[in-house]
Amino acid sequence: MNRIPFNMMKDIIERAFIRAGLDHDKAAVCARIHTESSCDGIYSHGLNRVARFIDYLQRGWVNPQAQPVAIKQLGAINQYDGQRGVGITNALFAVEQAAHLARKNGVGIVTLRNTTHWMRGGTYGWQAVDQGLAAICWTNTESCMPAWGGMNPRLGNNPFVMAIPGAQPLVLDMAMSQYSYGQLQVTRLKGEQMPFPAGYDQQGNITLEPGPVEASMRIMPAGYWKGSSMAIVLDAMAAMLSAGLTTGEIDRVEQGSGTGASQVFMLFDPQQLGGADFTQRLTEDVERYVTTSKPAEGVERVFYPGEQQLLRRRQNRELGIPVDDDIWTQVVALAGD
Questions:
Q1: Which CATH number fits domain 69-177+221-272: 3.50.50.60, 3.30.1370.60, 3.20.20.210, 3.90.980.10?
Q2: At residue 1, does pLDDT exceed 90?
């Protein structure tokens, strides 16, 4: 496995996106987000998603020219239709609109319907905390996980993000499945097993092996029945707030992962609540209290949400971003190099 400098990766991805039909501005933004995701160690939604996104563009499942259109503006909550535009730029737009509302009202809520895959959900948490704002964001998806007690997919893994600003922000980015399919892919490509049960194989056996779970599409809900229930209500709430599609309706779109999704972006201005200094002390106290836990057997130390991404970001900026050689070769070819 080689390491690629950040700017080289970003430039190659940008050229690939331009060749696929994105204008220069959108290509630059999307290339930056994909590269930042890989730089933070979320390889599954960074470099590894480039070829799939280009495939969706070429199939016409993503409209590269589309921009979000306002549907309703109701004080602190605004609804937009994403017009099946680029999921990353749609979501970045939604966060900026929610940030404007939050600075005005203390809270800002923007919902998106009819959008496409937003790639790494944590991107939008980091976008908020970089502006000193807190965030709760989530998206629904197509069915990729059985409901608890079921065999066939009926739930999205519906990524959920919470972010609290500070010198070292708290940023949670989690799917409602124990592992996302992207994490399964990354582990399979390394020839490794998952550290905890990932799901069921096609014979109904719980397994640590990622490949059989990818084949069966029986990924394990996080917290078993709890993750299953959370996925259901996140789906329903996203569709209700955006007047958009539920997972069952997205399934009928049949245009790849996330196409037609409903998304929610809730931002809060700490300056108008307890104040920026209070929030700073709060995050520091929480992080200190958690990370000074006595480590369990076989554990070196305890981390707070987002800490390991920051550590990988610093390391990968210095040493280069690790890549799977086959995936890197594919993206370089898509860039025309």
A1: 3.30.1370.60
A2: no
